[in-house]
Amino acid sequence: MRFLKKSGSSRNTEPVKKKSTFGIPRGIRSFVEAIVIVLILRWLVVEAHAVPTGSMVPTIVPMEYLLAEKISYRFYDPKPGDVVVFKYPVDGKTDYVKRCVASGGQTVEVRDRILYIDDIAVLDSHAHFSNTMEPVPFLFDIPHEEWQKAWEERGYNSANALVGYVTHRISDNPRQILKYYAYYTAKEAMKEGLPVEPDTLIALIESIPVLGKTWDEAARYSLMAALKQLLGEDYDSDIHGPIIQRGIDKTPAMSIGYAIADNFPKVTVPEGMIMCMGDNRCESFDSRYWGPVSVDAVKGRPVMLYYSLENEPPDPNNPPGMIDNILVLVGSIFRPQDIRFNRFFRLLF
To answer: How far apart (Å, rounded) are the C-alpha atoms in residues 4 and 6?
Structure first.
């Protein structure tokens, strides 16, 4: 009797090997496809960023990692209140994360740390002030048009553009910085119960000739002469000399930068631009110092924190690259005690 084979595959049939495409093994091809998809998504849809500094405290704290979506601002410009990622205008390379506080056509001013938009005080719920000292006044005599131009053109096109601009003006007219010496000396005198008001001492020092080779020398001479006029026979160099020295010690290191932060003179944001500030208003290097941001420089809108780490922040002047951030993340796996799990997946809008 003859047995006929059943139709269909035989148990002994060898599996057919799947051919590779263009000579590329299938596994490598799948890996490459996955990388391409990730790169396309990163380019078009979402991008990860690391925040190394505390300029956005408490919204974002140092060494937090966030995801920013890149679709929204393809259809509309950032609005005041939005947290945005943008290219730092001075170098056009470094990514910055700040909050948009005003858009084109709006006026911006800071008076005693209170933000004014179009001359109306803003209920600034995101603002945080880590500096517990009283606000530093802006005592420099700069015409509005000149200040607006310096702000738009970023002073000397440097990182500390407005500080550099003001410093240059002081070198041409040192009497402007002498106002701060008088201001801080009066504050020190008031602590001792002396009848020395800042406005009075500032007015007096403006009438005294400027002498000396340095700001400190000029201030010491002017303050001694002003206090002698103000106090008359009650002036005592042994008592008032240390007060003058304390006033000198506080100036000008803290004056220019804090004056710009605490009492930023009014500017108008140009069309096609936005003004950005950090939520940590006293410790944020932002549009108050280096000017407006073009809407074309805005890369995306942060939507969520996905990782947070207690780690020493890197040098802000030498921000880490992508590989550096990956190494930090991988290293943190072995230090779970340094991971801030309670800040994972916080929304930023």
So the answer is: 6
- Which residues 6+ apart lie within 8 Å of 157 measured at CB? 90
pLDDT string in tens for the chain (349-residue length): 444 444 444 445 555 554 544 455 655 555 444 444 444 444 456 888 888 888 999 999 998 989 899 999 999 999 999 999 999 998 888 899 999 999 999 999 999 999 999 999 998 889 999 888 889 999 999 999 999 999 999 865 566 789 889 988 888 888 889 999 999 999 999 999 988 999 999 999 988 988 888 889 999 999 999 999 999 999 999 999 999 999 999 887 668 889 999 999 999 999 999 999 999 999 999 999 999 999 999 999 999 998 898 876 666 556 566 676 677 777 777 888 888 999 998 988 7
Number of residues assigned to the chain: 349
Pairing relationship of beta strands 83-87 and 114-117 according to DSSP bridges: unpaired
Q: Which of 7, 10, 55, 103 is catalytic?
A: 55
Judged by DSSP in three states, 39 sits in helix
| Known catalytic membership, residue 98 | yes
Q: Which residue has the tokens 């201001």?
A: 183
* Superfamily of 44-133+266-343 according to CATH: Umud Fragment, subunit A (2.10.109.10)
6 carries an active-site annotation: no
Domain ranges of the chain: 44-133+266-343, 168-260
Cα–Cα distance measured from residue 261 to residue 129, given in angstroms and rounded to the nearest whole number: 11
Nearest to 174 by CA among 137, 206, 197: 206
Tokens of 303: 């939507």
Q: Which of 70, 98, 103, 179 is catalytic?
A: 98
What is the DSSP code string of 152-178?
A: HTTTTTSTTHHHHHHHHHHHH-THHHH
pTM over 0.85: no
**58 upstream amide cis, omega within 30 of 0:** yes
